[in-house]
Amino acid sequence: MLEPGNNDELPPIPGKRYFTIGEVSDLCAVKPHVLRYWEQEFPQLTPVKRRGNRRYYQRQDVLIIRQIRSLLYEEGFTIGGARQKLAGDEARTDTSQSQQIIRQLRTELEEVLRVLRR
Question: Is the model's pTM score more than 0.90?
Fold first, then answer.
């Protein structure tokens, strides 16, 4: 697991529509049982459940998980404090998540451009 303060070193989010709990665990450096617990504690986190109650997370869910991880592990919030922060900052969260998506897309597009120039 990554040390606190290394959220910038998390791998980029692939351009997929849905992610399994194992993939999200790797993308966010959080164990699957922690993700299942966070689903109970944070109403913003709602993965799609399909056959056999299997969870499928979308990009938005992965961004929320990364934000929760940052609040808990890097900024030292408690679960309750992080829940309040997320609930109170939804408008600002939308903006920061949009910015993060834009940064991620830009990184992916730059990589595609590098491949095309070869």
Answer: no
